[in-house]
Amino acid sequence: MLRTHARVEAALTLRHGEQLLLTLIIPLALLIGLSLLDVLPASQLGSASKVDWITPRILALAVMSSAFTGQAIALGFDRRYGVLKRLSATALPRWLLVAGRVVAALVVVVLQSVVIGVVAAFLGWSPSGAGIASAIVLLVLGTAAFGALGVLLGGALRAEAVLALANIVWFVLLLAGGILLAPSALPSGLGVVVSLLPSGALAEGLRSALVDGHFAAGPMAVLAVWAVVAGLVATRTTKLT
User: Fold this and answer.
1) Whole-number pLDDT of residue 102
2) Membrane topology for this entry (predicted)?
3) What pLDDT, in 10s, does the model give residues 162-174?
């Protein structure tokens, strides 16, 4: 049931033009633009090239776009149109409704990562081989955390509210959640808070893995906590209508 449900959700996402704009076109545009233009502060880059520094953060943005924003909006409108109410009449338990959407988001993230990685490679990206395994674990945990948060948001509010709030959160986390601005570039107190957000933990973890080749245990722990807590709450609060 999980495999079938995840396959259907992933197919619906990949067929949706607006979803592709959010999950792939915008991240690719930012990757190319920020890699080619001199808009990033040199103090943030350190010894890394622009494309090496920005690619892990674009991967984090892609995960957030598909697993959180896209999932929340899709779930909100599925509830509005009675999709979940009809699914509840089947043998699918509520936890599987959450898990199926998270697995579908993981499938989309894999495809996003391949496309973004290929484009970044053409731009000169050279990730650290020692950090590839750590980066894969971070992408899985990030997808689980953002996917659970997306289901939590999309399953609790009206579709119109979900649409507005999910996009607002996306912009806030992009600009001030540790993706475009590293926590180290922020005031110390704010930097600590941002590093504990799923966006900051995923972006910094991927940078540490793919640029420095480090095993990012701290960001992994942060993402795991977000995934477990948000997932447990979502299974109890998701409304079918």
Assistant:
1) 78
2) Multi-pass membrane protein
3) 989 999 999 999 8
Instruction: Give whole-number Cα distances, 199 to 50, 88, 203, 226, in Å.
Output: 20, 32, 6, 11
What 8-state DSSP symbol labels residue 48?
S
Q: Which two tokens stand for residue 29?
A: 């545009």
Residue among 241, 197, 240 at smallest CA distance from 98: 240
pLDDT at 221: 96
Give the DSSP H or E segment for 116.
helix 94-122
Following CA atoms 112, 141, 191, 181 in sequence, which dihedral angle do they give, to the nearest 10 degrees? 0
Residue 194 φ/ψ, nearest 5 degrees: -65, -40
What is the C-alpha to C-alpha distance for residues 151 and 168, in angstroms, rounded to an integer? 16
Average pLDDT across the chain, whole number: 86
Question: Alpha-carbon dihedral of residues 227, 233, 234, 240, nearest 10 degrees?
Answer: 170
